[in-house]
Amino acid sequence: MSDSVLIVEDDKDIADLIRVNLTELGVETTHQDQGDKALTLALEKNYSLLILDVMLPGVNGLDICRQVREKKPTQAIIMLTAKSSETDRVLGLELGADDYMTKPFSVRELQARVRSQLRKVHVLQAANCEKVDDEDSPLVIGNLSINQKNHQVIFNQQILELTATEFELLHHLASHPNQVFSRSQLLESVWGYHHSGYEHTVNSHINRLRAKIEIDATSPQIVQTVWGVGYKFTPQGVEN
């Protein structure tokens, strides 16, 4: 079954540009320029990826992102924002977007971002379909268990509800305990690309991950900041 993408964009030229270039990737596309209708489609149908513009008639892209994320925690979402609107970029990421692109964007960059998100979708789909064997041992550190086979994270006997990108970020950090990663390194390893200026993507995902795993997100003990360098996973934070 081919991948399907819902393009939510009220600028017809931009929507056509996205649609043409995703078709080249063999992706089926649906376009909607009204926010309220797009929200209904996103909640009722199963799309591999949503590409959401922020400024829309009716319901705006940020509200769509928030409501979809509440109902569909693993839905892949890329936000489109104006180059001058840093607030929209940060808000979109904090509300649950996996990634964002600023207008105007290059065709190659668009295709790279879409491929990256679809790869995560395929991994998640495979995890949901395949039987988990005893040999597929999870990564266990203290009270934290990360099972890459079924994309499940258990901490202190509670299942954490993570997006696909949050899962990949946690798994990458926990697989290299105490190793410090810069934002650029995390962009390349987790998101699959390296573009300067997109560090907000990493920062916001770290914040979202901390909100779900830390006892006190304002004083993180598990995913810690190394000032001036980046982030690291601290094993002591998940031990008894």
Automatic annotation (TrEMBL):
<dbReference type="InterPro" id="IPR016032">
    <property type="entry name" value="Sig_transdc_resp-reg_C-effctor"/>
</dbReference>
<keyword id="KW-0597">Phosphoprotein</keyword>
<feature type="modified residue" description="4-aspartylphosphate">
    <location>
        <position position="53"/>
    </location>
</feature>
<dbReference type="Pfam" id="PF00486">
    <property type="entry name" value="Trans_reg_C"/>
</dbReference>
<dbReference type="InterPro" id="IPR039420">
    <property type="entry name" value="WalR-like"/>
</dbReference>
<protein>
    <submittedName>
        <fullName>Response regulator transcription factor</fullName>
    </submittedName>
</protein>
<keyword id="KW-0902">Two-component regulatory system</keyword>
<dbReference type="InterPro" id="IPR011006">
    <property type="entry name" value="CheY-like_superfamily"/>
</dbReference>
<feature type="DNA-binding region" description="OmpR/PhoB-type">
    <location>
        <begin position="136"/>
        <end position="235"/>
    </location>
</feature>
<feature type="domain" description="Response regulatory">
    <location>
        <begin position="4"/>
        <end position="118"/>
    </location>
</feature>
<dbReference type="InterPro" id="IPR001867">
    <property type="entry name" value="OmpR/PhoB-type_DNA-bd"/>
</dbReference>
<dbReference type="InterPro" id="IPR036388">
    <property type="entry name" value="WH-like_DNA-bd_sf"/>
</dbReference>
<keyword id="KW-0238">DNA-binding</keyword>
<dbReference type="Pfam" id="PF00072">
    <property type="entry name" value="Response_reg"/>
</dbReference>
<dbReference type="InterPro" id="IPR001789">
    <property type="entry name" value="Sig_transdc_resp-reg_receiver"/>
</dbReference>
<feature type="domain" description="OmpR/PhoB-type">
    <location>
        <begin position="136"/>
        <end position="235"/>
    </location>
</feature>
